[in-house]
Amino acid sequence: MFLALSEMRRARTRFALLSAAVGLLVFLILFQQSLLDGLVTKFIGAIRTQDAQVLVLSRDAKGDLEGSRLTLAQLPDVAAVGGVADYGRLVVGSYTISTRTSQVDPDPKLRLIDASVWGYDLGSIGGPKSLVDGVRPSQPNEILAPTGFEDQGLTLGATVRIEPGDIELKIVGRAKDLVYGVRPALFMAWDTVTQAAAARNPDAGEISPTAFVFKPVPGTSAGALVDQINGAFPEVQALTRVDAADNAPVVASVSTTFSTIINLLRFVVLLTCGLFFLILTAQKTSTLTVLRAMGAKSSTLVTALLIQVVFVVLAGAVLASILQLLVSIPLKKVGVSLDPVSALTTTAVVLVLALIGTALGAIRRIVKIDPAAATGLQGASS
Amino acid sequence: MESNELVRLALRELRRRPGRFGVATAALAVLALLLLFLGGLLDGLTAGSTGAVRAQDRDGFVLSSTARDSFFRSRITPDVRAQVEAVPGVSNVSGFGLTFGSAKIDGSDTDVGVAGYERRSSVLPDPPAPGEGYADVRLESAGVTIGDTVQIGPSSPIRIVGFVKDTRYLQNALLWVDLDTWRSTTKLIRPESTVGDGIVQALGFDVASGADIAKVVVSIDAATNSITSSLSSDDTINATPGVASQNSVFTLIIVTTLLVAALVVSLFFAFLTLERVPMYGVLKAIGSGSGQLFAGVLLQSIVVSVIAFAIGLGIVAPLALSAPESLPFSLSTQRIIVTIVGLGSSAILGGLVSLRRVIKIDPAAAIGGGT
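ok -> structure tokens follow
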């Protein structure tokens, strides 16, 4: 320990640079993991939050809720498949909502925001599983909104409007993670969405359901109901709630891209740490040889090296966490945050990679040192 | 020692001891690969999302003010169009509409959009006859050929009469049809988005020669009593869903990766400089200046970064050529140049860390330390 720390004290710049490099790499990994988790929730949070265990989409939508279009005539046939305790319809669309910049100011400005509007049959399934505050809507002009959008005017009791049109709605309850397509998801009565569609487009025909929602009878699993529906109706695709969320096309493509980048960054950690400690070891080979000749064991020298690796990675992890905290302030809206569990896991993975990189080069070099070679260093004067 | 001799010395060291620089080059090559991959992905995502706007070659677009710059939420009536056409400085007003759907192509469900337009451009021919359409080349890769009919949902089939390039929107390949075909197709596949005769989602327009687009968009919205929200073509592209946020996120990751590259270079050359202290001491003793010695360090850092970039490009380029159509990846010459300049700058920045140490080398102490 003394050997490791005193060397780090004497070569502060080098170890500081390496810690900074590892810190930035860990930050990049933490940032992308957090962004991925946040983005996935922002894309499909509302699917996870709604209470139907089975969703049925049109087959050609390929699991994409926004691309799904069904007909109301299909609903009774699909619902008659057996094992269904409750069912309903769901329509999802993108609308412009106006909110007030302040609920207190008597003359506040109007603010326009993008929102995902979810229409379902009030009192039936399709709404959020649980609320953070307020009550469920019982009237056509009452809606549920997500928490976390207070700065955009979506507070409990606030009045919002769907634009264009004079459809005034009151937020009577709120739930967590009611987001879809990186927009707040507002849950309301089916008829309210019909009214909004007509107000926006007077030429609009009948609204098509985006999905049917089902609750299986006790004793029937969601998976079993899914298999029954898919077997009986090839023109639709039934999915459990989990599959509808986790296998949404956008989730798969974003996850693949981010995973590729994160794995490349991990490889860079391995190379960078391996490079640094290999060069460091090479530079002090003569010193290490003398220490071996004086009786120091290889294990002692390797332990000193490993202590330095741990120190560098931990210092880098602290730097990364600070950077992640700083970046999460402006990027909170897209879900970037510092998750302690993720930070610890990433640090552990990076530490293992750094140790592997070090083992491949520096540790092998230390272990191969021949103490007898020390006599050759003083051979001319003996 | 003369400068060109020191330059040759630096290059000779690279040639004679490549292994010494190998690991640093490998680390930088992975970073170069990452930078090219990120840049190509960003460019591919942006291109695949905005092709439909760029393909129309317009100076600006007019949408409903309540649409928040979304084509799908916008609705422009003939009355509003007449108001826009009457604004001084506005010319070549034409309608545009867009609807997404799904079509069975070669037995697979494929996301396909229908775009109705009125005016030709450098990319788009004159609108085809009713019931016909030009397909984005992405559909040709999916198996569509000229003469085929593509049926989107329950709509009437659309006969393909040609292909156009780089015309996608939000990663969806489009069929470009006349406005009547677009309206009738929309009525069948998206009844809730049906529009009546003469109604479009947006208007494209050009500005008269010499007119200022910024002033014209303000004039248009004033003329329509703010029923419309008019944007330049660039602003319309930037308002495409996801483009702005993708840009900022990817840029943050790219800049951070460049900083990592600078740190890797600085680490490596800090070590090298330490090892070379006796050699630098001798060189200084025989008359070399700190600047000349440091130039050698910078030269090596640049050469290492260029080789690393070449390795990274050598891996990414074949991947770019063989990437599946579903991967939005586009490696442009501009991106390659930006990446090598960024990497080279990082290398120079990293090399600067050794400058102080090189300057501080005292020839007498450096040589005396070796005896």
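Chain A touches chain B through 60 residues (CB under 8 Å).
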